[in-house]
Amino acid sequence: MNLLFRLIWMMLTAHHRSKCVMTEETSLPFRVLPTDLDVNMHLTNSRYFSFMDLSRVDHLMRCGAWKQVRANKLMPVLASGSIRFRRAVPPFKKVDVTTRVVGVDEKWIYLEHKIISGDTIYSVAVLKAAFLNTGGRIPVSELLDIFGHEGKLPPMTDALARIRDADDAVMDLVAI
Q: What residue ranges define each of the domains in the chain, with the CATH number in brackets?
């Protein structure tokens, strides 16, 4: 986590933000600081993912799952991410990072993040996430029991299946 002070601030102020259920979209504000810029003087590519990291933790805290993550010694991890950069984010711009669950299968939770300001969408990302414990990856159905989530999560869509298949194809290209 390369945004330690922002992480601390987010955790200290979390109780001021509204509670949510796991399926609701949440939003976390950021200001693009000079330390967030690249040589082109706009938000550097890696910072998008760092902002999204903080937004995911905020989402878990607001929906009440973070306590269960800590109590059960779970590790939230990402398996892959696909991002679309639409516009450059200039210095000092105030942006919001939204987080929402867009689908699940038996192994993975698929999340959507947007970096937006007003009606302007700067980027959209879809991430494939899971939770691990000492025994490995926890199946989504078991995870929902741990979190006490009683509702349904969005199912896999054709678009998410294509993203999953493209991710698998990338792995076919490399020898691990």
A: 20-171 (3.10.129.10)
